[in-house]
Structure formats: structure tokens, C-alpha cells
Design a protein that fits this description.
Layout (H helix, E strand, L loop, with lengths): L2 E6 L4 E8 L2 E9 L4 H15 L9 E5 L5 H18 L3 E4 L1 H12 L6 E7 L4 E7 L5 E9 L6 H4 L4 E4 L15 E4 L10 H10 L22 H6 L1
Parallel strand pairs: 1-4, 4-5, 6-9, 9-10
Antiparallel strand pairs: 1-2, 2-3, 6-7, 7-8
Helix pairs in contact: 1-2
Length: 231
Amino acid sequence: MAKILQIETATAICSVALSVNGETISFKEEQGQNLHAANLTLFIDEVIKTAGLNYSELDAIAVSKGPGSYTGLRIGVSTAKGLCYALDKPLIAIETLEMMAAGFLSENPDYTGLICPMIDARRMEVYTTVFDPLLNVLLPTEAKIIDETSFNDFLTQQSITFLGDGAAKCAEVLTHPNARFDAANFNSASYMSKLASQAFDKGNFEDVAYFEPFYLKDFVVTQSKKQQVQG
């Protein structure tokens, strides 16, 4: 039975879970700005102790690989890689949007429509993709600027549930009758459990030395107006 530590830091939610054979047995999470650097290692330690395990008993480390927050992903992935090196354990990378869709389906097992997870990328832009109920990808992951015509090719055919921290701001724009919105939190490491277990069973491991998060967009440093004036 694979014991997998799971880390999700792609958004403002700092989330850690531990699963055994695809079932979550312990998790800890909190939402807020700039939590990851201070809390991630504390959450990991608490989750492992709550499960009654030692670090040496882990079989793998799984991490949400993105897309999402540049800083959050960097912290999560660097922590996961550090644990893999220290414990000599394999690294599993889970696509963040797939994890969100899997979480929605686990809470709605009879759902038959499409799922569109969205991660906020500021203004009216989101990181997004579209899945069917079997988690087949129908639209490649992209940074998409949302307007009233977005996803119309899908919406004219069947219902889509939009979810994630990027979905709420789109509700006033995506007004098609087949558009549904779910405000629940699906950026939880607990929703990684089955995906991580499947990856472990298939031996789908990353090269710890060379693995990098899926940022999707380059990180851009901008100056504040005060800095621009001083410059």
C-alpha cells in the first residue's frame, strides 16, 4: 500500500495531505496570502504525525505542478524535491487543473456534464482547460482571457461546470444557460490522492534533478508607480 505525501500550493491555499492506497488519511490546509513559505513544512510535519507515520515510511512525494501562482508553485515544488532528495523517494507531479476536476467529480459522482477548472491569472484571464467526466482533456491548458463568447462551442452542446478561484469573476460574463458555477474549494491536496496512487502504480515519476513547475506563463517583475517615479 503506497503511502504518499501530497503538496498543493498553486493558489492562495496551502494544502498538505497524506494518502494510503489512494485514500486520504490525514490533511491540513489554510487559505491566505503569503502562507506557503511559513506554513508548508509545519503542515507537512503535522499531517505525518497525525497519520501516525514517520518520514521514512513514505513511499513517494506528490506535488501539484501547476499552472498557478509562480511563487506558490516554486515553494511547493522545491519543498517536494528537497524531501525526495533527503528521503530518497520518487517524485510524482500532478497537473493542478486535473486535480481540481478530479476533486469535483469525487464530490459529484453522478455528474455527466463537462468540467472547466479555472485558476485566477488576474483581470479577466484564467489558467484553464476542459475535461469530460472521465477526465479526458477536451481543450489544451491555456491562459485564456474570458469574454461572453468563451467556451460557446462547448456550451451550445452541453452543460459546463466552472470551478476554482478564477471562476467567480467569470460568472457575470459567461451567462449561457448551460453554464454552471461551483464555489467550493477544489485546490486541496486531498483531491490528489487517487491520481497520485495511479501514477505511483504506473511508475510515472519525475526526474527530481530536472523537474520544474508548469508555470504556463513567464514570471514578469513589475515596478510600482513609486519605483517608476523614483527611477
